[in-house]
Amino acid sequence: MSFTLVRVDDRLIHGQVVLYWSKVRQGDGIILVVDDQLGQDNFIKSVFKDAGKKMGKNVFIFTVEQAKKKIPEAAASDKKYYLIAKSISFLAELKKAEVDFGEEVIIGNVSNRPETKKMYNNIYFSEQEIKAADYLKEKQLKLKFQLTPNDAGAEY
Description:
Elements: E1 3-8, H1 15-24, E2 30-34, H2 36-39, H3 42-54, E3 58-62, H4 64-75, E4 81-85, H5 88-96, E5 104-107, E6 117-120, E7 123-125, H6 127-138, E8 142-145, E9 154-155
């Protein structure tokens, strides 16, 4: 498997991923982002890609539909990728389409929104996200709430 980090984080690419996680989960500096809204906004995509380049990372942004094709291609390569989804629901959609992205998902920051439940520090899930997490657990994925590598975290 070519994913050294599979993470849910609604901030997508930020200092925790680039500075902390990349030190403990070695990769080839390639970040695949799955977010339906961002994947359709060419201007914001270019901002993320440019920011990634300034940090020495190549960033590719996909909608869930695009990711259904691109993630298996990445998994088949010998490069080591980071896969970041804005929502755990996107990963559940990929899994339902039989896309293999590994056996572990690290859940980072998911902001508090109306009608969400606190799951862990700075991690809030809607009912839809809880159902998505339950589905991934049923498929034998290990789900862990962990904001930074130094955080002991908690299992879902």
